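look at this:
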Amino acid sequence: MDYQRVFNQAIDRLHAEGRYRVFIDILRNKGSFPNARCFAGHNGPKPITVWCSNDYLAMGQHPAVVTAMEDALHDVGAGSGGTRNIGGNTHYHIELEGELADLHGKQAALLFTSGYVSNDATLSTLAKILPGCIIFSDELNHASMIAGIRNSGCEKQVFRHNDLAHLEELLAAANPDAPKLIAFESVYSMDGDVAPIEAICDLSDKYNALTYIDEVHAVGMYGARGGGISERDAVADRVNIIEGTLGKAFGVMGGYIATDQTIVDVIRSYAPGFIFTTSLSPVLVAGALASVRHLKASSAERDGQQAAATRLKTMFADAGLPVMPSTTHIVPLMIGDPVKAKRISDILLAEYGVYVQPINYPTVPRGTERLRFTPGPAHDESMMRELTNALLEIWDRMELRLAA
């Protein structure tokens, strides 16, 4: 076996398909996001504007968050000291879990090192605990949810995206005595659409199924206190398990679930992805705690972000750029070709100092490659005008078609 040849061929395939991923080399400028410095392809740092960060509200730059992390660092040091069982169950962790349970109106919450881990660990463990469990999964669910379902070894049935009739058809055909779990997201981040949570909960009641919602792109962003779409739509009490992240709107790092005390105890006691990993640094937890508390009380960041997203969608549409329909803060621009998407991204960065990453397969289906913009409260109208004009120039240069 020529191992190197096999590895090289795998990378060559990505290049041939136009979906080889290049990671940018940047540093953000504290206190002035979305301004950053790019180090790739030139001598020294070059100023750029970031348009694709998941730090949607710039809370990673917020003075309260930064101060809380600095205070924790000087109070307890850098690391957690081990797993939650051994030495990493700090008071910061306990406080944050209390705040997250309160945010979603649940009895308890459980922290993980990332949103990916929280999905993988929780879904795989739940299905193993429930004998003969069937998981009904939306076809556009995130890779972490798919991994968790696969790792559970249980039966999986995939329903068409947000298709309630198809979901009910599958539920009705299943063994009525089998444990059932419906797994879905609130905001689907590549298209920017929203799940019909209340209607899914109606089906879960009718067929005696548990509900599991991934709110990673919605926590901090929606609802009076940032509890997500389930809070905004007043249905959080009907969802059994709410999963979220601390690395997007809350601006730090980590994942969590919020649910009843017994389910938290089961996951805490049985999930290898929780038991056998070092817990989050208390420095990170302190920052997330400050962010959650701030966004529970302040809507200014959410309001500013929503206004920015609406403004950018309007500018793109008025210019004839192929902006995809979205009812949320996600602003996707359809390209439909991986090579062109990468080329547009490269020109924007090299010539205009604009950073937006192309989204290619397998994140989205082939033929639906796009640029995904996430304007925040600090992206002002002049930035948006410059971005729109840059895109129009590139569209003309590459002889791309504008929308009718």
Q: What stands out?
A: The longest helix spans residues 300-319.
